[in-house]
Amino acid sequence: MLLHLLARWRRVWRTTWGATPREVALALPGDELVRNPTWGYTHAIGVDASPAVVWPWLVQVGQGRGGFYSFEILENLAGCHIHNTAVILPEFQRLDVGDQIRLAPKGPPPLSVAIVDSERCLVLVGAAPGDDDPTSLWAFHLVETESGATRLIERGRYRVPPSLGMRLALGPTLLEPISFVMSRQMLRTIKRLAESAALTG
Length: 201
Prior knowledge:
The chain has seven helices and six strands. It has 201 residues and is α+β, with helices and mostly antiparallel strands. It has a single domain (19-200), classed as Alpha-D-Glucose-1,6-Bisphosphate, Chain A, domain 4. Strand 5 (136-144) and strand 6 form a beta hairpin. The longest helix has 29 residues, at 172-200. The chain is globular.
């Protein structure tokens, strides 16, 4: 099952999981920050809750914050020291442009908040050492549906520098299947938490 999930021929499915063709083709805020990406993905999930209910779970992401809502055991095996929360944390409900979001206590370098638009989008970027322009983008977009529910769209874009180390770190061979597994779990968990909050709120 795992080999089937991670097979190279499944790449198109992994990089567009849950997203409609329109969502995959949609130009979204922040796309322009990583110019001429080497590869990328667009994932999406429907959440039966309003963007106002989904947003608090997104804005508190980060190591030492609310976690990443994914497979905590796997993240911690990699030394990330992640503790995923199942509650809204008031102390982490504000982000400003330039704030840093850590992925782990020690390396890789933290991501920077490039765009934060409450209840609409959160865009994080990272840069390779010695590179002034962002080489990676991790973005979340909330699109309200006609019924008042939310389409939660996650987008990643990567411009891979030529060095071997950066090709290994940011290239699709390793990062794409691993990030898919973790991202899918993250989206599913946010959906569950937000829908539960909508029912009880």
